[in-house]
Amino acid sequence: KPGAAPLPTLHSSKFAPVPEPTIRTGVVAMTAAVLDLMKK
User: Fold this and answer.
1) Would you state the torsion angle of the CA atoms of residues 24, 17, 5, 8, taken in this order, to the nearest 10 degrees?
2) pTM of the model
3) What are the pLDDT digits (tens) for 1-40?
C-alpha cells in the first residue's frame, strides 16, 4: 500500500510470520497432499 512500511524479505532477521495462521495453513496443505497421495 502506498505510504505503508515495506515488508521484510523472507531471509531477513525481521521476517516473523504470525505463528497460528502460518502453522494452520501448513498443516492443511500437508494434510491435503498426503490424502491425495493415499488415493493413488
Assistant:
1) -130
2) 0.65
3) 788 988 899 899 999 999 999 999 999 999 999 999 999 8
> Helix or strand or coil: residue 2?
coil
The owner of cell 510470520 is 17
H or E segment at 23? Answer: helix 19-39
pLDDT in the model for residue 36: 97
* Contacts (Cβ under 8 Å, ≥6 apart) of 14: 8
User: In b/e form, how buried is each residue of 7-40, taking b as 16+ CB within 10 angstroms?
Assistant: eeeeeeeeeeeeeeeeeeeeeeeeeeeeeeeeee
